[in-house]
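Module 6 notes. Inverse folding takes a fixed backbone as the condition and produces residue identities as the prediction. Think of it as a translation problem where the source language is geometry and the target language is the twenty amino acids. Below is one complete input and output pair. Work through it position by position during the lab.
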């Protein structure tokens, strides 16, 4: 599952919520933080910020009602509440009545993460590309390719151009040197990348050359 998300539990530090923290952490293989107030949480840009919120906490209820629009748009809330106690907020909020089954909560979180990561990450060939994670993945086949910083910057640059780019331009923009580098520097990088991501590196179908230019096949 993608690293592009955080999960925080907003509740009093009771035994029940400490147990919930441990269960969710073990199931999702992810560190879960437990806070007593939303104000203690620092929102991460370019991440899906997931909150499991105990609405029986009066401080938290007040905080939810006063959240800014930008905060809500960068977050997703699973609100644990009694049947009679709900908020008049709909966007990015899912209300789960207590008592509830942990597996139900986990399944809803997993769907939320899957939807976010699938729609937010661009594709390169059959891979989902994450510039933040510096990786290429094929989730259905559990394929994960770790990229070096230079490989990551190179792919990110080509994606933004969306057209074949001359080698000398790539060298200048990706390496960031004013002095023109030798093309073998770029050729070596392309060779390593093709060996990582192409089925047949000698006959590439993803990272292709067009004359003296490189591009990512659409």
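Target side of the pair, the amino acids:
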């Amino acid at each position: 599952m993608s690293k592009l998300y955080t999960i925080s539990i907003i509740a009093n530090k009771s035994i029940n919520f400490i147990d919930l923290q441990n269960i969710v952490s073990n199931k999702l293989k992810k560190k879960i933080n437990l806070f007593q107030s939303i104000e203690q949480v620092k929102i991460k840009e370019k991440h899906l910020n997931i909150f499991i919120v105990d609405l029986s906490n009066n401080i938290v209820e007040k905080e939810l009602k006063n959240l800014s629009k930008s905060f809500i748009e960068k977050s997703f809330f699973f609100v644990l509440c009694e049947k009679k106690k709900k908020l008049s907020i709909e966007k990015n909020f899912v209300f789960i009545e207590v008592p509830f089954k942990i597996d139900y909560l986990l399944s809803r979180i997993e769907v939320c993460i899957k939807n976010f990561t699938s729609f937010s990450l661009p594709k390169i060939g059959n891979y989902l590309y994450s510039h933040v994670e510096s990786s290429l993945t094929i989730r259905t086949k559990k394929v994960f390719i770790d990229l070096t910083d230079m490989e990551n910057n190179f792919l990110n640059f080509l994606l933004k151009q969306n057209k074949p780019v001359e080698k000398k331009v790539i060298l200048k923009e990706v390496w960031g040197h004013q002095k023109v580098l030798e093309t073998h520097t770029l050729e070596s990088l392309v060779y390593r990348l093709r060996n990582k991501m192409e089925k047949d590196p000698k006959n590439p179908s993803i990272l292709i050359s067009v004359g003296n230019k490189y591009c990512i096949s659409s």
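Reference fact for the lab report: The two ends are 25 Å apart (CA to CA).
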